[in-house]
């Protein structure tokens, strides 16, 4: 069967001496694997199609549920500027690896494709990659059924105002007087909690240029890492590399 799908390359691996296999996050057919024959040859017209973050239309033949074989493709956006910047490439790789691990083959729906496209576009336009990454993680939690409850205290069931705590185990926010409900809850300032609530309601495609203070970014990272670790629980190479960049001051 011949497919012609809009997609983004989220993973590429060598196959044999001259070929590559790419994994696409498609708009209509979820995640699909495609063999690109001869992609490693110096004069291959398909070599550029296998680069991470490449967005375009991919035409390929596929029989049954196996790999497709690329017939032709048209690149809409190569996103080469993202690959040339260490920090942007690291954030892009993390977003792609999250989708690759979370999305099942041929899951229907365009949500992940649209969020990833918005994420890559935002980085290309100069938006803060850290802020976008935290929003992307929030969307992943929500799509997986683990979006945190950020308005009502998980213990008292009353509205929360001001400084508070986030309990990944309880799946939401705790008022300070109820911190004993989860000794491992993460403290969060009123400013950061307000931004988390915005993230819970906001689509990546609607995110404008947001100026977030370094201390708020640091809180956001701690909170989202705790939520992701509790509910998603996947250990990604790209995340470890991002942490190393942060440790040595590159991710600032």
| Alpha carbon gap, first and last residue | 47 Å
CATH topology of the largest domain: de novo design (two linked rop proteins)
Please, what is the average pLDDT?
91
CATH secondary-structure class of the largest domain: Mainly Alpha
What is the spatial order of strands in the main beta sheet? 1-2-3-5-4
Please indicate the percent range of residues in DSSP E strands (runs of 2 or more).
15-25%
What is the H/E string? EEEEEHHHHEEEHHH
The number of helical runs is 7
User: Which range best describes the helical content: under 10%, 10-25%, 25-40%, 40-55%, 55-70% or over 70%?
Assistant: 25-40%
GO cellular component, one term: bacterial nucleoid
Protein name: DNA repair protein RecO
Domain DNA replication/recombination mediator RecO N-terminal: 1-78
InterPro entries: ARFGAP/RecO, DNA_rep/recomb_RecO_N, NA-bd_OB-fold, RecO, RecO_C
């Amino acid at each position: 069967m011949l497919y012609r799908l809009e997609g983004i390359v989220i993973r590429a691996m060598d196959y044999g001496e001259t070929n590559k296999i790419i994994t696409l996050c498609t708009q209509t057919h979820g995640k699909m694997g495609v063999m690109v024959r001869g992609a490693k040859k110096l004069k291959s017209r398909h070599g550029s199609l296998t680069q991470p973050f490449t967005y375009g239309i991919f035409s390929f033949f596929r029989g049954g549920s196996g790999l497709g074989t690329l017939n032709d493709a048209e690149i809409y956006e190569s996103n080469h500027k993202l690959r040339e910047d260490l920090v942007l490439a690291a954030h892009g790789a993390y977003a792609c690896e999250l989708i690759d691990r979370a999305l099942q083959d041929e899951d229907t729906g365009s949500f992940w494709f649209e969020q990833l496209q918005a994420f890559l576009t935002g980085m290309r336009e100069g938006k803060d990659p850290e802020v976008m990454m935290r929003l992307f993680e929030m969307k992943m939690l929500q799509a997986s059924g683990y979006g945190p409850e950020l308005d009502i205290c998980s213990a008292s069931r009353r509205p929360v105002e001001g400084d508070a705590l986030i309990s990944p185990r309880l799946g939401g926010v705790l008022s300070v007087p109820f911190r004993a409900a989860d000794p491992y809850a993460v403290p969060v300032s009123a400013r950061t909690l307000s931004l988390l609530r915005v993230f819970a309601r906001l689509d990546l495609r609607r995110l404008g240029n947001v100026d977030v203070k370094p201390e708020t970014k640091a809180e956001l990272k701690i909170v989202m890492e705790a939520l992701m670790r509790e509910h998603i629980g996947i250990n990604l190479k790209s995340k470890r590399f991002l942490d190393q960049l942060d440790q040595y001051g590159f991710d600032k």
